[in-house]
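User: Predict the complex.
Assistant: Input components as received:
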Amino acid sequence: MAKKAKRGPEETAPELELTGRDVDTMDRLQTLARRVIESAEKHRDPHLDVPSRSLSNAHFNRKKRFIEMGDRTNRRELFNLNQARMYMQTMLAGSGCSRLLRQGKSTSIRGLYYMLKHTIEGTKEETFDDQAESDAVIEDLEVLAGALREELHLYAQTRGSLVGTITFEDSGDTIDASRMGSGGYSIPSIVEPEIIKFKKCDAKFILHVEKDTVWQRFNQDKFWQKHKCILTHGSGQPPRGVRRLLYRMHNELKLPLYCLLDNDPWGYYIYSVLKQGSINLAFESQRMAIPAARYLGLRSIDFDRCELKPNVTIKLNDQDRKRAQQIAKYPWFADKKPWQAEIKKMMDNGFKLEVESLISKDISYVTEVYVPDRLRQGDFLD
Amino acid sequence: MAKKAKRGPEETAPELELTGRDVDTMDRLQTLARRVIESAEKHRDPHLDVPSRSLSNAHFNRKKRFIEMGDRTNRRELFNLNQARMYMQTMLAGSGCSRLLRQGKSTSIRGLYYMLKHTIEGTKEETFDDQAESDAVIEDLEVLAGALREELHLYAQTRGSLVGTITFEDSGDTIDASRMGSGGYSIPSIVEPEIIKFKKCDAKFILHVEKDTVWQRFNQDKFWQKHKCILTHGSGQPPRGVRRLLYRMHNELKLPLYCLLDNDPWGYYIYSVLKQGSINLAFESQRMAIPAARYLGLRSIDFDRCELKPNVTIKLNDQDRKRAQQIAKYPWFADKKPWQAEIKKMMDNGFKLEVESLISKDISYVTEVYVPDRLRQGDFLD
């Protein structure tokens, strides 16, 4: 396999010279492969030590302020009837990704599943029975190789747009995000420095809103022009590409990130993932989480503060109350008094508030009053 | 109300000079309002004749080749206890839209709900109890005023991107869709000629693919450059903005539209809506349906034709079989032998095929072999 890694027999497509991060990613994949050879040469059983992705191996690092993966690993052996299948699947996924790197192409995790699915010669055994199997193995491969799946040339769904006072290059094309009309620029799934290169940025901050319909209001009112900022949305829980781009803009361009989300447990959760990372994919937090993100609103105090009418509120249901209690106990919210007050106040209110409820004041209240007031007052939750 | 239509007391935002289509839309809204005054002056009970949006009032026009709304109307009277509430809701929605037009702003149907929701003075009566009520009234208003909801300044969700050899203006910004990087241009919800103006088009056709992940493959392989075309996706069932933009490009730029969808009942249905319109919103077909659209694939014959392996197929379930039988009976498929054969073959196969299954041949088989072959051979379903 170590020899094959340079040229596999399976592909006919021309191979490219690897560049940038791909060289490093390929090296990590080849290291995995080389270990098999080394074990064989030493007459030892090949194995992989896969970092454990269980909840108990994820913890909140209070210093770094994001969710981190612990040190626990599980051994996966080739010559173990219970583990052989998954061992081989892991190596197969690694070989698939190295093929993608060498071809300079990428695909979805569904695409990789189809690419690798086959009946093993001379048997009736399938490499993968369903996509759930290959998805799990891809997550293993990410932590094994220490590479985000985007670096393994795997893309996710895209949903999310961007406009604002920033110019960057995307795959060689210059994108002036201040001239993107009403539609905006679709944020791609893979936004690594090889693809997206920042050129010129006049923005002073990033405003990330939850929904595309709210984003449209901010874009129509040219909020980003008036306030010199970058305006993004992620159609609800932002996909990986949006999170990673926010991370890069925040860290490389030193832009504060403000989040405008609904005043409900789902909005709190979106904030939590943007800020601290997700528990399920703790490995990725270090390259996606933005601990300095700020929660600008909506807040539980907004019903009184903005003098809203009761008929724009939405009653909390049992599910909401349960989720709110869970979220209040997250370690990164548990010791923050303002967050405890925020969540308690929502429970006491007995209702949630969508960003759109501000339209009952005026269609542009959110862009002309609400957000500018919060920014001027420096009034947000951490 | 007729007098108020020019200047409502509710808004403080500056009013704009109406331009283009807005003049016409406002006129249609004012006509509705004027009828109330006229009735009152003649001491008659005000009423609206709302075209019936029931299924039985939608039919397939074989000459125009799209789903059309019939002539049946339902009378809605102000002085009728059963109808007064809905009558007033309809007029309220009309007044809300006229306010949007005069402010030169637009909002989502959720936004309009929040904008219009209030407790009627001196009563405990709410104008709308929930959004379902205002959504239904908006659909009534569209047919009453003979205006698409986009013309009433109401936007829908956006999901869908575009790249290709076309340059257009969006709200004054020039968008060169051949220089949009890996992300592409986010197709907005409102794409009427006042917002999107076509400038230069070198494209020979439009390729619309179902999913964003497939779109990414075509964009990465620069398919649109090689084949001089426009490449779009709609993240599944395309939203209104995507359908309307495809309609405009097809009709104004005389570009054939080819659809690359999954070989399953859902793919057939997406094609059906793009081509003939949707039964629920028959009124909009005349401005959205593209009867000359072509179904390029995937086809039920592709398992054999492309020599796919059984392990990339997905077994049909009961729901699939039921949907397929329904779709086979749609009047626009019922008398087309190739479509009957297509659907029957899928049932006989007993499985469906996703576009991604072609990756099992080669990651770029779909962009380099499958679609180019079909285009060269002129091989598609009508």
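Chain A has two domains: 4-155, 161-377.
Let me know if you want any component modeled separately.
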